[in-house]
Design brief:
single chain; Beta-Lactamase; Rossmann fold; Helicase, Ruva Protein, domain 3; 18 helices
Length: 521
């Protein structure tokens, strides 16, 4: 039996002790560090300090089977970016393909070594060790190190030790790989959602072609790229938030938050906390610190709807934010700076509120830098049918219906109605009509009663004081015949077959009701 010299035995013992220390440090990092991405960097530092590693890198397998450097030591960011290996390519690619570790005594003498990172400039001999990271029988990465050239036996011991490290890291590396995949998936989904939101709130998708709406589109284009405060004015239901979103999603802040606040919906004692946040213990129920809407919207846009309803105390604080972009949380003393674009909206007459002492004049001028007026629906009647058709298609999709058109009678009702609830009321009206329709047409009787009470609709031969049964039946009959004539392009014979009656009876009813078939050819 060959005896080892005392010096050799001591060296082996020292090396074994060092390796145990390294494994202990790696295990400690894996147990106590929750940020797995930083664990890899820490482990490479341990290998550098305790194992004499010159350079090291850990690659992870991407979905397209390319091994990309995820963590490294001794490589610049530029060098790290070059490190991408296909299966079978170079030493790293071969290890990934075969699941077998590789030892290169001198990288300067081995033609398989590609030096893809271009971090080795040649000169002194350098050894290269590379081992696979295997999880559930799949190579999910590799660990490789550069080290000073030593004897073959020592390099083999280091290679075997590196395989132990890879086995120890396998599960952690798998978790990191899953985290990266999840992060990339969420990032892609986030980008997709932002694109969809951008498309949804672009001015092109705001329905309306009348001259008043063309002016609104022009104003959105003029102000979007700036940081100017915008005040959107218009009655309730005209689409003020839609315009606010169009301004945001047409601006350079498109990738930043858009935070909407309905000031009228918040109790007066809570609105300051909602807008500016609060510190723990600031008031009863404030069990922890909370960020306000201004803080959450930092870098983006905050939309203050119904701004005319805020209290005088909040008006003072809001004025300071608009002037200095600085505020304090409720119960706090620290000043918080924000980069924020403010868009406000109101249906109130602020000039009257100023005269009545209900709204600060200086705040009004701060808000009214760039005013945009949204016309009421009764002022843009040429857009009513465009909007109705849009809502009809949306409701068809939501409720899986196939309603193809709106009858003439229903159109007359909608065009004659004064729409006090504006576009929101029209949307609700179409939704109700879609739900109540039993065929592929929205009839006048599918519309809410509020649209059927005016004589000005010209949709029924109703007396000025109430309606009798005969007139209502005649109105319903007239609508059915007109719809059938439209479907059959004014052909009375086809219409009679469609209504399952005779031409003689249909001609009689057409004459009595004053219908002209030729209008529908």
């Amino acid at each position: 039996m060959e005896h080892q010299s005392p010096s050799t035995a001591a060296a082996i013992n020292n090396r074994a002790k060092k390796q145990i220390d390294i494994l202990a440090k790696i295990s400690h990092a894996l147990v106590h560090r929750h940020d797995l991405a930083n664990v890899l960097d820490e482990i490479l530092i341990v290998l550098e300090q305790d194992m004499g590693m010159l350079r090291g890198m850990l690659t992870l397998r991407s979905p397209d089977d390319i091994f990309v450097i995820e963590a490294s030591k001794g490589l610049t960011e530029e060098e790290k970016g070059r490190g991408q290996y296909h299966l079978g390519e170079g030493i790293v690619g071969k290890v990934a393909l075969t699941k077998e570790p590789e030892l290169v005594h001198d990288i300067n003498q081995d033609p398989r070594f590609l030096n893809k990172t271009q971090s080795r400039k040649g000169g002194e001999p350098i050894s290269f060790l590379c081992v696979p990271v295997v999880y559930k029988q799949l190579v999910i990465g590799t660990i490789s190190i550069d080290c000073p050239r030593v004897d073959t036996e020592t390099l083999r011991q280091d290679l075997n030790f590196l395989m132990l490290v890879a086995d120890l890291l396998a599960e952690a590396v798998a978790n990191i790989r899953e985290q990266i995949a999840e992060r990339e998936s969420l990032l892609a989904e986030n980008i997709k959602l932002r694109q969809q939101l951008g498309e949804l709130y672009q001015p092109d998708n705001i329905i309306g072609k009348c001259s008043a709406m063309q002016t609104v589109y022009m104003q959105i284009a003029q102000v979007a790229a700036s940081t100017a405060t915008v005040l959107i004015r218009g009655e309730s239901g005209t689409g003020k938030e839609l315009v606010a979103r169009a301004v945001h999603f047409s601006s350079p802040r498109i990738d930043k938050p858009f935070v909407a606040v309905n000031c009228a919906a918040l109790p007066e004692n809570l609105i300051e906390s909602e807008l500016f946040g609060h510190e723990k213990g600031a008031f009863s129920g404030a069990v922890q610190q909370r960020k306000g809407r201004f803080e959450l919207a930092n870098g983006g846009t905050i939309f203050l709807d119904e701004i005319g309803d805020i209290s005088p105390a909040v008006q003072v604080r809001l004025l300071r934010v608009l002037q200095e972009h600085v505020f304090e949380r409720v119960g706090g003393a620290e000043s918080i700076s924000v980069d924020i674009r403010v868009i406000a909206a109101t249906g109130k007459n602020l000039e009257k509120a100023i005269a009545a002492g209900e709204f600060r004049e200086d705040l009004f001028y701060r808000l009214n830098v760039f005013p945009i007026h949204i016309p009421a629906l009764r002022e843009r009647k040429s857009d009513i049918m465009l909007l109705a058709d849009h809502f009809l298609q949306s409701c068809n999709s939501v409720y899986r219906k196939d309603i193809k058109r709106i009858s003439t009678a229903a159109i007359n009702m909608m065009m004659s109605y004064h729409w006090p609830g504006n576009v929101r009321e029209l949307e609700n009206c179409i939704e109700r009509a879609v739900l109540s329709s039993v065929d592929d047409v929205i009839h006048g009787f599918n519309l809410p009663p509020s649209l059927q009470t005016s004589e000005a609709t010209n949709t029924a031969l109703l007396p000025s004081e109430g309606a009798n049964l005969g007139d209502m039946v005649a109105s319903y009959e007239r609508e059915l015949i007109v719809d059938a004539l439209k479907k059959n392009k004014g052909n009375v014979a086809s219409t009679a077959r469609h209504l399952q009656t005779t031409q003689r009876i249909l001609h009689y009813r057409i004459g009595k009701l004053g219908i002209e078939p030729k209008k529908y050819r």
